[in-house]
Amino acid sequence: MRNLFAFVAGGLFGAGLFVSGMTDTAKVQGWLDIFGDWDPTLAFVMGGAIIPMAIAWRIVARRATPVLGGTFPPPPPVRLDSRLALGSIMFGAGWGLAGLCPGPSVASLSYGGVEHWVFFAAMIGGMLAAPPVLARMQRPVAAE
Amino acid sequence: MEQDWIWGLIGGLLIGSGGAVYLLANGRIMGASGILGGLIDGSGKSTWRERAAFLAGVFLLPIALLPLYGTIDTNVTSNWTVLIAAGLLVGFGTRIANGCTSGHGVCGISRLSLRGLAATGFYIVAGGVSVLVFRHLLGVI
Q: Could you report the per-residue pLDDT of B40-97, keeping only the tens digit for each?
């Protein structure tokens, strides 16, 4: 049952990325390109996505456990650290460079052509490189 | 195009609904980089089925919708150097920061998480600078 709901959630996510145009790298880069021909679409996608999620967090606050059991995620840490900043800056730089982030990368694999597989493979490589680097960092931060 | 923002809003509502299902049913935060990263580096071994099922949904639903649209041009660059550099940065950066546009952005901002808001600020500014530098100054993309 957990897998079925995970599949439904992923399906909604994938369908949303698809119909919103967020797998079109020109729309993503167009939103980031405030000095060019600015494309506002991404702001509507982000705004639209936050509405159901904000409602969901309200429901979480009134429930003891998830519908399928287990526990809800703990409250987010309030501490900011260099890891969060550095990682996000690196992510943003790559996001602007190709116009792809992890969700749309997966959603577009079936129709984006070989370029999307090249990006995906490199992204997997970057993800695999992260744990060894993190382990060597002097002051490891507790995982969220 | 004028309809783009409407489809953006509809798509956004679908994305947020997916996040709501994953949170309320499975008790998990819908973050694409965390779900994928945990699957491939072994840190999410105990929940691999759930992760794989989620990613299967992300991968398969666009295929189901594709016939309605015909061909889709993603306008992606054909420069492999750019693709590889960008992929490495996105993969490495999201794992270091523990989240991407879905986890920190959609799920974090909607619960007013300080870390989600801060991460989103950082990656949007970095993305804007990246487009400015590589498109307008260097002309690479």
A: 999 999 999 999 999 999 999 999 999 999 889 999 999 999 999 999 999 999 999 9
A residues 75..104 contacting B (CB < 8 A) = 76-80, 83-103
Owning domain of residue A56: 2-136
Residue A36 lies in a domain: yes
Question: In whole angstroms, how large is the CA radius of gyration of chain A?
Answer: 18
ipTM of the complex: 0.96
**For residue A142, is it within any domain?**
no
> Chain B contacts of A100, Cβ < 8 Å?
76, 86-87, 90
CA–CA dist A117, B54 (Å, integer): 19
State whether residue B104 sits within 8 Å of chain A by CB: yes
Interacting residues of B78 by C-beta distance below 8 A, sequence separation 6+:
A115
- Chains A, B: CB contacts within 8 A come to 491
